[in-house]
């Protein structure tokens, strides 16, 4: 088996297993952290965001790790993570500011399976495009605009509800004009920990592959494989409703 394919398979399987093995712990964590740090709500939201970024999540790790591996340097890998997390943060900050109108609608509808499938289809489409064009020597890595769109789509995943729960719990104790800070701090915390994950994976894979070209190809293949995983996960969740 080619080295790039082997690395992509290992990364994809590791992320898929991690995502499927970890129970949904974020909601109880939210309530526990707010109980202990309620007075320091800004710190509490930031810490919860950090935990979110460290938690294997189908709407962060498969995308940030895959795009990170395609980049030609650690700086660019962190930039690709920042673009993705920035899109997440903008959506979350906007929705936390508007939670009083949005929460009743989303609380009564489970959109997670559909988001999984949309993100999965997008990942596969981008991966196939990059792989096909790369053969012609035109593209080396994903366009940051694509990563931004992925971030906007992924922001509506399961942890979107966590941001709304946070906002609902905190709105009675903070000024209403600071509502946007909840999504903003959550996103910043998540970005910091996602960056740590991408940095560690990038350095580890580069050390194993000893060749950026191999790592870049592995990132593209991992994006394709994890896109397929996302679609199957979405279908499974939809059938389980």
Question: Short summary of the structure?
Answer:
By secondary structure, the protein is mainly alpha-helical. It has helices at 3-21, 26-37, 41-54, 61-69, 74-97, 99-107, 112-134, 144-154, 159-170, 180-209, 212-240. The termini are far apart.
Topology:
Blueprint: H1 3-21, H2 26-37, H3 41-54, H4 61-69, H5 74-97, H6 99-107, H7 112-134, H8 144-154, H9 159-170, H10 180-209, H11 212-240
Helix pairs in contact: 1-11, 2-3, 2-9, 3-10, 4-5, 4-10, 4-11, 5-8, 5-9, 5-10, 6-9, 7-8, 7-11
Description:
Keywords: Membrane, Transmembrane, Transmembrane helix. By secondary structure, the protein is mostly helical. It has one domain. It is built from 11 helices and no strands. The chain has helices at residues 3-21, 26-37, 41-54, 61-69, 74-97, 99-107, 112-134, 144-154, 159-170, 180-209, 212-240. Helix 4 packs across helix 10 and helix 7 (112-134) packs antiparallel against helix 11 (212-240). The model has no long low-confidence stretch (mean pLDDT 85).
Helix content: over 70%
Q: Which spans have pLDDT < 50 for at least 5 consecutive residues?
A: none
Count of domain modules: 1
Measure the end-to-end span: 39 Å
Task: Round the mean pLDDT to the nearest integer and report it.
Answer: 85
Name the structural class.
Answer: mainly alpha
Tell me the β content: under 5%
Alpha-carbon Rg, integer: 18 Å
**Main sheet: strands, sense, barrel:** none
